[in-house]
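OP here, attaching both records as promised.
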Amino acid sequence: MPENTTITWLGHATWRILTPGGVTVMVDPWLASNPRCPEAEHEASADVVLVTHGHGDHVGDAVAVARRGNATTIAQYELAGWLGEQGAPDVIGMNAGGTVAVRGLKVTMTHAFHSSSTPDGAYGGDPVGYVLELESGQRIYIAGDTGVFGDMALIGELYAPVLAILPIGDLYTMGPFQAAHAVRLLGVRHVLGSHWGTFDALTKIKYRRNAAIACKMVTEAVDILHEMMGANGIYDSAPLQRRFRDAHAAAGHINFNMDTQLPLWGQVALGGAYTSPTF
């Protein structure tokens, strides 16, 4: 995991990264109307805001967060223009392949495969991901909303991220099966799952027999787990949930709620922020 870095999941695809230099980066701020964001975080601010695309569940509070913290907001060129029109105070528009320096960090924009339009129907440009280089030189890959694609191997080769934040909810993004292959292509051993558990469509999808799933690697390097479906082709997540509960809750890093329906990754309980330990 990145050294001296604290990462907090605020539900859905919203992440807060506190860097070794004390810079607060927020990815895809969606707070007030996000059913999985704790109420105490609804007025959060940041120093840097990264927006991956224009859908409302990713830009919903981007301008408000930026205004509260007088943040620099980075987005794809067309979307950056729209965010500036909405009142974001300091916006940098760029495109895939570009790198900008901000607050002692380096931000590189990568491709993603999804769609993008703003809540008012304006053109939102292309969906993107980011490689965030911390003050320590370590890098975090934030995939954004995407399916797996072969050039993830190139991202791994060029930037060697120590951590990847990957969508796993399926339907609108890749699910665990593709995410497992993304982990292999990127060559990362620390992964956080994103874009899951917010709506029924992202929590109740069943997978076919023999589908491989990627394990959420929360605090330590853990090999990808490949689990078999039950004989009836419907996956029973309870044994895997218990495995994660016993292994990680004992370490004091995660608060599992086994009464809450969890997706196949056995992740943290829905409705609560997950904060990684500081390394």
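Record two, same layout:
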Amino acid sequence: MGLVRQRPTHLLPDETPLLIPKAAPIKKTTQAKGKRGFLFKQTPWIWLRQSTGVAPCKGVGEAERSPRSLGVCPILRFALKEVPPMIDVTVENFETEVIAASMSTPVLVDFWAPWCAPCKTLGPILEKLEAAYEGRFKLVKIDSDQEQQLAGAFGIRSIPTCILLVNGQPVDGFQGALPEGQVREFLDKHVPSAEEAEAQVEEEEAQDALAEGDTDTALEKLQHAVATDPANDDARFDYIKLLLQLGRDDDAKVAFAPVIAKAATVRKFDALQRWMHAI
């Protein structure tokens, strides 16, 4: 998508890495193509680690992998709460506000500049959607004029450019001032639905209740999590297991019925089935 204005001259030409120390050898750059044709460069990530101390998770350039398939960090957890104020990211707070934050919530990084007219169009759309998604993703902004190191590390060639990070690594991105509908489509490919997020919160609260010995609250939370998101196998497994522990065998069998076919391929469901057969 075209921009009204060319990128500022301080951004890297293809053959010249931005501010990379001479002592740091530059390896041949490899690229991975995202679902919208967005290119993630691997060499700048290596430079970013060397020059700023930020050490992202493994697997740079895995744009085709979904948040569920990353398999690097624990299950995504979301708190449905008030969206915090917009965060301006710099080299100093990049590790905390982007890398660390993306371990629990997808982080959308918006590269912009004050002079960029399309950026001023896209910015309010992103802020509106962050509020509408109620904490299911975090929006941060990076001024490409002020933070040339970060712009170079991500291989930014034009703005606005948005990159989504999950578990410390980029999974997809887009360029240009997309309309709201297209931005929603982009987010919905990677951000859990409201039902999935709510179920995950319920599951986490159930585990907290179990840790405190409050089985009644835990059972209620797990039941609600399964009803809200029937595809949440972790919540269903914990719910059935707790029912069996409480001697509610018939209820456990009813809750197990929708996933009985998975017992042949999913070890934890096979274990539950064997448990019920032994009763």
